[in-house]
Structure formats: C-alpha cells, structure tokens
C-alpha cells in the first residue's frame, strides 16, 4: 500500500502554518524538537490529530472529533486499504494524508495527538512509540495485552512527558461520580463486596474461518505486528480478533475493563491481593479461544493493608443473556454495604438494608429449647433512605447514563493536552484495570489463585504466573520497544 498523495486545501494548510508560527514565535526559538514544540500548546491553538485504525470504534472517534472546532484531523492510518480510503474520505479534509505505516505518520510534526483504535496487541507499542515521537495519545481499552505492557506505557508517558488517555470513557458518567460520592460519604456503611456481570447470548458463535489468503489490500504482517506469526484466517483480523489470546484477553479485558475501571474509581482501589478465576470455552461452537464463560473473584485490601477491604465477583456469560431472571446483579454493578446497596448501571440507585435485632434473623422452626436465643419484638426499619439518580437506566454491559461519555473522554484529552494536567482516564488508571483483568485470566489459565502485591506490582511466590505477565514481541518490534524505553 502506498501513502496517499498529499492533497491541497489552502485554508487548512494556512491554519497549520499560522499555528506553527504562533508556537515558534512565542517560544522565541527557531528550531524546536517535536516534544518541546507541543509543550507550548496554548489555549487558542488548534490541535492536529492523526488516527490509527478505522474500525468500529475508530470511525466513532472521528465522528466525535469532527465536532470539536479546535481540532484538525490531519491523517488516517490503517493497514487495510479499503478502510484507509474510507477513513481518509471520512475525515472530510482533502488536505489529510493516509498511511499504512503509523511510524511514517508519527514523523509529521503538525500532529500533536494520535488516537490509537487498533486491536489490543498493538495498543502498548503504538502508544510507546507515539510518546517517543512527542505525541499525546488517546489509546483504546483494554490498554494492554499483557500486564508488563502497562508498566512500559507509564514509563514512556513519564519519560517523554506525554498525556496518555485510555478509552475507558464510562468513568465520565455522572452516575459513576454520584455513586462514588455516596459511597465516600459512608452512608452505605462498610462496602464489603461488589458484584458485576456481563451476560449476552451469541450462541452458537461466529463460525469457523479456514486458513486463507488475506483479502486484497490487507497488510496482515503489519496487522500482526508484535504478535506471533500465524496463518491468516478471516477471524484473525477485522473485529473477530477479540476471541484469540494472541490479540485479546477475551470479554474479561473487552467489556470487563469498562466495568472494573468504574469499580476501581468508585472504590479508590489500587489493586487486588488475590485473584481466582474459572471458566473456558463451554458453549460456543466456533473457533474462538477466549472464555465464553468466566467467573472471577478478586480480594482487595482495606486502606490499612492488614484489614480486609472488599471482594469483587464477576460473572461473564456469552451464551445466555440471563433474560428470564430478574436478578439485580444483571442490572449492573452492585456495591453491597452493611446499610445499603448501590446499583450502578448508567444511572444509580440506593436500596436500603433493614436494621433489625440480629437475634430475629436466627431460624425459628419450633423454637429454641431452654438456654437458646430469645427473640425480641423489634420491627426492622431501613438503615437509610432509598434514593435514585435522575440519569438513564441502561444495559448493564454498556453502563451509559445518557451522556456521551466517548465525547467527554476526548474533550478531557484535548483539555489535558493544553493544561498538561492529569486526565480522568490516565495511563496509570488503565494499567490498574488491566492488572485486575490479566490476573484473572492468568488464574483461569493456571487453575489456581494468584497472589499479588499491589504496591510492588508483582506476583507473590508464583514464578509461572510471573512469567505470564510478559511476552516477547516479534522482530523487529522488540527492538523498537527497547530503543524507546528500558525493558
Ligand atoms: N471504548 C470503547 O467503548 C470501545 C468500543 C469498541 C472497541 N474498543 C476497542 O477498540 C479497539 C479496536 O476495536 P474495533 O472493534 O474498532 O476493531 P476493528 O477490527 O473494527 O478495527 C481495528 C482497525 O485497526 C486496523 N489496524 C490493525 N493494525 C493496525 C496497524 N498496525 N496500523 C494501522 N491500522 C491497524 C485494522 O485494519 C482495523 O481497521 C479494541 O481494542 C477494542 O477493545 C473500544
């Protein structure tokens, strides 16, 4: 695939030239590196954006970014030529340039920010190399394919002084902030456990894709990038990469990342100390590898690590949408406190627990013989008042409260690019979410509980699990990584 010819749209070119003049003049320097050039991005300067990956979410990002008046959509990169052409046209900027190799795009000094909407196995390396090239980054969730990539991404962001926002946009929902405020107020008592689920039914699955030649215009080697070389099938490519361990962590990292992100934010939690998970490919009849059924439990420490904090339970089902059971858990995240429960599913709702004499909860049968507990006649009353937010109730899997959280996350990214202040969905937050997801998948694969030190970010006493926190990149990408950061 060739780069698209550079088209000419005078007003856009002029806008870019003017912007550069303003930067260079303000800094009083004739020559500036890409990194220092961007550090002086002022309140009124336009922001040049390049996008990588014009897929399901990549297209939505462009649709959103078009609405921002201070953004110039300068380039599109995709390894599938028909998508590159479609994406380039979708930018509606005849001046924009197309690329099939993101490294070439990173050379464009007019680009200050890149949106990375490629499959999971590309997120870390494309982010790290963007930081090295002096670009700020909006990278899709799940932030990483394996645990150590998160450490590398933080290192790159800090080393090169870059803003890195992760696409766990639901954290911006008002329901999430309200829930956090309610829980922080202590009104629900001690939150000791959290339950969430992700039910849907895609039985019998997506079929079996035989080995074949990649479609015309699809640069499969560049699509694979750092991942192991495997023969092409239609499932090892566009969209369906999600069901293969080489490119994804399955629904635990796909939908689970969104939910765990909210839980960690609401609970001010850093990381678990123990994780157990079970499941596998139980029901779907296609060629996918990642679990269609997964149960997981995490144990989080309290503020004083010696005291228990809370547990988190997850249920993921791909072959039953749980339609017939009016289970509160199927509605969203449940935060179970001693005095009430918070249900968070886009909107939030507080369901009170009843305050009664504990003695009355002991079974009665025919009554206790002499010396047994004596019941009292106190009537249970709610510990707290029921309450509910004014947002929209939504599908537990998606958890929007009616707001356009995707656009909000991008607005936050653009703001941070100007202020250099930490965004709401920072690279460190994305790393913590990924840790929780990856530890669950490691536990599932090893069939045992994984112990984790959230401060040192290390597995405890389990060499096999530790080895699964890192993977080798395929050449030449291993060298690109080592040239950019310390590994
Ligand atoms: N935040 C959200 O709500 C949300 C929603 C959907 C998807 N996602 C995430 O976005 C990512 C992409 O998902 P999708 O459904 O859009 O996938 P997709 O397969 O539809 O699109 C990915 C695109 O990236 C391109 N690509 C792959 N490698 C590339 C490379 N090296 N250089 C340039 N282009 C390359 C592919 O050709 C494809 O067009 C996934 O990680 C997914 O988890 C996030």
Please tell me how large the radius of gyration is: 25 Å
Query: What ligands are attached or bound here?
Result: nicotinamide-adenine-dinucleotide
End-to-end separation in angstroms reads 32 Å
How large is the share of residues in beta strands?
A: 15-25%
Instruction: Just give the CATH class of the largest domain.
Output: Alpha Beta
CATH arch. level architecture of the largest domain: 2-Layer Sandwich
- Main structural class: alpha/beta
Can you put this structure into words, describing what you see?
It is a single chain. The protein is of the alpha/beta class and 487 residues long. It folds into 2 domains: 10-171 and 476-484, Rossmann fold (3-Layer(aba) Sandwich), CATH 3.40.50.720; 172-401 and 428-467, Dihydrodipicolinate Reductase, domain 2, CATH 3.30.360.10. Helix content is 32%, strand content 20%. Strands 7, 8, 9, 10, 11, 12, 13, 14, 17, 18 and 19 form an 11-stranded mixed β-sheet that branches. A 6-stranded parallel β-sheet has the order 3-2-1-4-5-6, with helices on both faces. It has a two-stranded antiparallel ribbon with strand order 15-16. It is globular and about 85 Å long. Nicotinamide-adenine-dinucleotide binds at residues 52-58, 77-80, 83, 102, 117-120, 122, 140-141, 167, 169, 222-223, 225, 238-239, 254.
State the main characteristics:
32% helix, binds nicotinamide-adenine-dinucleotide, Dihydrodipicolinate Reductase, domain 2, 2 domains, Rossmann fold, disordered N terminus, 20% strand, six-stranded parallel beta sheet
